[in-house]
Amino acid sequence: MTRISTDILISGGGVAGLTAAALFGTEGYSVICVDPAPPVTEETAEGADLRSTAFLQPSLAVLKAAGLWDRLAPFATDLQVMRIVDAGGKIPSPRITRDFNATDVSDLPFGWNLPNWLLRREMVRRLEGLPNVDFRPGTATAAVLTRDTEALVDLSDGTKVSAQLLIGADGRNSPVRESLGIGVRTMRYGQKALAFAVTHPEPHGNVSTEIHRSGGPFTLVPLPDRDGRPCSAIVWMERGPEVLRLAALPEAEFNAEMTARSGAIYGPLRLETRRTVWPIISQVAHRMSGERTALIAEAAHVMPPIGAQGLNMSLADLRVLLDLCRAAPNRIGEEPMLDLYHRRRHPEVLARVTGIDILNRASMQSAQPLRDLRAAGVASLYALKPVRRTLMRLGMGARG
């Protein structure tokens, strides 16, 4: 069979892979994007990703460059305040609440929140309008062979592709990464996360709230109203067996338990979607590039969903890749470019994964003295205005 040529082949059609396809397609490159599973683009469909993504300020430039922001903006909910609540006292009610307001550092909100299933829907529609992008859902990367001049990729539909640049966006168990022999360092916590959406009687006021007690944070992120009621996306992290117990509870019992865990800050919570369960790990690839290949997103780095860092780091990967491609558009995928990509991204990835790892372990603590120490730390950092502002800028993606 004749081998077809493309500038870029993207292995992985999740949110990061679809963004990459839109970004480089908009830039004028010929792109093939493949994923073994067709994207689920309806909230009620089986397999829908019921998590949400908070795009922080630095990600806005990538979404605009990809021609995506105008499609996404009508569905986005502003995140004006990041609220940290410690409920680690003897009873599970808020004892310390600290608000980090975007007005202290910016004229814009911290970010904008959207459901993941909706992101896939709008991103697929964007790709349909790009004639130089060939999106092949239901097609997997079957084999990878790289050499100095090209990446040779065999697809599960029988297509053979020659690409100048191969982008591995194919998840934490990345076949592309494994084909290149790039190892990973993995940290396990014995945690899982429940992701779902709820309604509540009190408005969220564009406040994203992380409530810390033990087992991991309970995070409420604003969504648009649902049937006239305020709505939030929730990620509830806990020890694995506890998450499985919660996932199996009858709905009325589950509503009562999650309302108690939230400290009832918005009143009684009512489940509005299915409950989905996700494993929690931290993982970093030893390298973010190989011959003719760049690793992005969870193929390169995985972390617990704290501080909205995960997908924003993936878009930071794409921002650096795009800058390097623009600097030498006729030399994409060559060794100097990919070495520079690794050097620019890997140290920052290591630092952020390490920081989130520390925060997650602190949030998991169940011993009362350690919970008290955590609460005192939050209060002390917040009290120092220069430190508070620095933490907000770092949280939004500024480099330290």
Automatic annotation (TrEMBL):
InterPro entries: FAD-bd, FAD/NAD-bd_sf, UbiH/COQ6, UbiH/COQ6_monooxygenase
Protein name listed in UniProt: 2-octaprenyl-6-methoxyphenyl hydroxylase
Domain of life the protein comes from: Bacteria
Protein family according to the UniProt entry: Belongs to the UbiH/COQ6 family.
UniProt KW keywords: FAD, Flavoprotein, Monooxygenase, Oxidoreductase
Transmembrane segments: none
Occurrences of domain FAD-binding (ranges): 6-349
Pathway noted in the entry: Cofactor biosynthesis; ubiquinone biosynthesis
The UniProt record lists the keyword Amino-acid biosynthesis: no
